[in-house]
Amino acid sequence: IIVIFAKLNELLQEFREGKKCLGDNNISAVDELIIWVDAATSATTTGPILLVATWADLVPSATDRAFVSERLEELLQGRGVSVLTRLLRPAASSSVFFAVDNTQSMADAGVQALRISLQEAAENSDSVKQQVPLQLRLLQDVVATVALPTHRVQQQRVDPIGSVAVDTAIAQVRQRHNTGPSAALPHIELEDLADLYAACTAQRRPALDDQEFRVYVDFLHLQGAITH
To answer: Which residues pair with 87 in a beta bridge?
Structure first.
């Protein structure tokens, strides 16, 4: 289940006025949304996608919201059929997004509609019902840990791995990328995942095209632990 967020007021401004609303990464709201949609569909081929438009309280007009939805649908049609077929829409609505009022918290009807849709999607998902080896969960946690600098890990109270083999593999990955323990790993490669996989499963390091190893890699894609 993939959830992608965007600010409704910025989408409206870009579509209606043609003005780019650049974020901290210097990417416009519309462009960033499309980047995430493309990343989601390239990394996964199944599973629902939900678009959430935040700050809907700044766009109270139903006409404006419908306008944004129509423009987004036009953009999504250009990204391929698979996007629209996987898209979950609010119940009894033609909108492509869930509008969330940032001032209402859980009392917002949009938040409740999103919560219900997520729950139903999870209950109907084959991947959610699938049994997952504990080593695979460990690998997911290790990848998340490597992606964070040490101080962030401590702030988020991530439990220490507690395995010499895993800790050694993490150190080797960081050394390979010349990344110290106080910095986040900028990216991770298949070679790195193979080292971490071997440590987490207590097996020999797999070939990069090993079938079981690639199943683990696909799982990390599906869970969002890695994006490409």
So the answer is: 49
